[in-house]
Amino acid sequence: MSKHKAPSKTAPKSMGFEEPLIQLRKKIDELKEYTATAEVDLSAEIQSLEERLAKLENEIYENMKPWDRVQVARHPERPTTLDYIPLVFEYFIELHGDRLYGDDEAIVGGIAMFEGTPVTVIGHQRGKGTKENIRRNFGMPHPEGYRKALRLMKQAEKFNRPIICLIDTKGAYPGKAAEERGQSEAIARNLVEMAGLEVPVLSIVIGEGGSGGALALGVGNQILMLENSTFSVISPEGAASILWKDSALAKTAAEAMKITAPDLLEMGIIEHMIPEVRGGAHNDYKQQARKIAGAIKISLEQLSGLTPKELVSQRYDKFKSIGIFSE
Fold it and tell me: Which spans of this chain does the record mark as coiled coil (predicted)?
């Protein structure tokens, strides 16, 4: 069982679009504290503010813009792969190393049980603090990370275990050392090998799904995304720098790129959008894990009737159809 640390008990950090909610909650807490310490009954005022808060939450969370979702996907307290694994799976045993160079801690993987079924779980792993982020390379894998992932996938195929990939990375590490060890080749090989796996493959975007670093775990029979996650070939800042020579236009780029789960579901690029708890997954790890587990169960049931050849064919047809335009 993973011993990854529990979420912080301190108040979650707010995002720009949440500022009105933060101020209103603060005001409610102040009135409650004043009522408890002074001989003044402010229950009517508190109730009025709580009703106003509920209405404002509905307005904000039900009308989130693409850039708002990008901010939620990047939230520093957002659950990571190692946060979800003990909540979704049982008896997880982490496996290490690519049998070629070393062990990349930006990718974690191993075997586990999901509702009585043996599965292989692989995912990107970010850190929750400076030290862990450095250790995990901020969730940006080196080639040995992708080779470790592929080793575990081939092992899963050998023992007929479904593969569940959790995607959460800004992208593959672009440094000199990674390129010297074959970063592009490692990603490309994963794409080719995943396309031909004869076991069910689920790819679930739990945060940021950036560039080839995400695609290397993204060739699944079904792609699922959390409601406030993103999946794209480049970050909004990077796209804005290329298109308009100004990264400050990232908000505009996020809207134009169609990188959010609702947009990708509408275009048929993903199969399922997993709803998030109110305000984002970082607000309730356990409840969000239950939603993910439910989605995994549905997807595995949908794929369970396919033969190995049908799984490969379905995966091929899925990706072949992406980008086809018809009137």
Answer: none
What H or E segment, with its residue span, contains residue 311? helix 308-321
Instruction: Answer yes or no: are the C-beta atoms of 120 and 161 closer than 8 Å.
Output: yes
Cα torsion 276, 277, 281, 286 to 10°: value is -110
Among 82, 67, 79, 85, CA closest to 15: 67
Rg (CA), the chain: 21
Helix pair 66-73, 250-257: axis angle to 10 deg: 100
State the amino acid at position 214 in one-letter form: A
Token couple for 149:
């992932």
Cα–Cα dist 158/205, whole Å = 25
**CA distance readout (Å), 293 to 79, 88, 131, 156, 274:** 14, 6, 30, 20, 10
Place of tokens 């108040």: 11
Listed in sequence order, the residues at least 6 apart from 288 whose beta carbon sits closer than 8 Å to its beta carbon are: 79, 84, 226, 276, 277, 281
**Structure confidence at residue 57 (pLDDT):** 67
Residues in the chain: 327
Instruction: Name the residue among 215, 212, 211 with its Cα closest to residue 234.
Output: 211
pLDDT digits 0-9 by tens, 84-132: 999 999 999 999 999 999 999 999 999 999 999 999 999 999 998 899 9
Q: CA of 200: how far to CAs of 113, 221, 299, in Å?
A: 15, 6, 9
Q: Would you call 278 helix, strand, or coil by DSSP?
A: coil
Residue 207: what pLDDT?
95
pLDDT tens across 161-209, in order?
A: 999 999 999 999 999 999 999 999 999 999 999 999 999 999 999 999 9
Q: How far apart are CA 277 and CA 80, in angstroms?
A: 15
- The rounded distance, in Å, linking the Cα atoms of 185 and 179 is 9
- What pLDDT was estimated at residue 156? 98
